[in-house]
Amino acid sequence: MEASIGALQPRLVKGLQPILDVLEQAAESGTAVEMDGIFQAASTDIIGLVIFGKSLGGVDKLGLPSKNSPSSRSARDSELDIVSALENVKAETQRQMVMPLWILNRVGPSKKVMEAKRYLDSFLEECINERLDMEPEAREEFTDLMSVLLESYENSTITRQEVKGQLLTFLFAGQDTTAHTLTWMLYEISQSSQLQEQLADEAKKALPKRDSFADREVLQSNQLGLMDRCFSETLRKYPAAAMGTARMVGETPMVVGNFYLELPPGASLVVPPYSVHRNPKYWPDPERFNPDRFLPEVTKKRDPMTFQAFSAGPRNCVGRRLARVKALTAMSALLRRFHIKCVEKKLPPKQFLSMTMKPKNGIRFVLTKRD
User: Fold this and answer.
1) The model's pTM
2) CB atoms within 10 A of CB 368
3) pLDDT for position 239
4) Using alpha carbons only, what angle is made at residue 100 by residues 98 and 105, rounded to the nearest 5 degrees?
5) Paired strand residues for 311
6) Among 202, 272, 278, 351, whose CB has the most other CB atoms within 10 angstroms?
């Protein structure tokens, strides 16, 4: 997937254009919009286009904001079936991570979680069957992730269950992580008028036309350098996978740091990025949003293991480049078109830590059109 980021760009644009149309309407009416729900709907459609070659209908169900509903929480309250199903399963996964095994064995998953799992399995089966039933000529038009997996399945390299497992993994990893990151990024940018104008100027130089999008040349150059640093700083302060990923100790016992704590084979070890990223030993004044932490000359002096937004080592996140391209494409288009103002009364917004780091009640903004 990393080798074909340029080929995915049209799908990102196709997934982003509907939310920009919604936001144009909001800017004209002066209505506050809850951006986490909007970003999540767009991210759902984008990941659908990348994985299945089709939108999952997230943005279609948003509806246009209006002055008759000033809070405009419709994005969060809309029934996005695929989103709600994924959220329910993620909540169960979170519960399994913190609850003792003997309790889990007694209680078991809830009815809501079982329904969500059945829905997701049925959805994946439907997508796979629909593609396999196509004529060969029609299937050749698709260059999405499912095409790659189904080719391996038909060559008996992987099983049908493994196909579904891989599809579900990408759905989980890509559906809301970038959405929450974009919301936090937008909030931090809105808190500094100077930074917002610098980013708007950068976007205007990279995108001369107001309705254009960053293309492959823009993304591979340093034309959005400040925005890229803001993206990294957002992931530092609000890591999407804040709790980290468990790793199992191999056959040889592991000694942890300078504590002389020996972990036996089979033990699980988790290093939470949230804690590492806010450790003043590595990140001075960690609560301050400072994109200059990621200037090249600063980054090279820092231990790379102190920034684990995408984990580290051979098992790091395979979608890291896609996440960056999604974020820079979306944010450059947004700041090229609009001035943003956060209108939440209680700041900073409350954080909610589940499988991902997200704003507990969303974050509302008022947008004003730029020339």
Assistant:
1) 0.84
2) 11
3) 92
4) 120
5) 309
6) 202
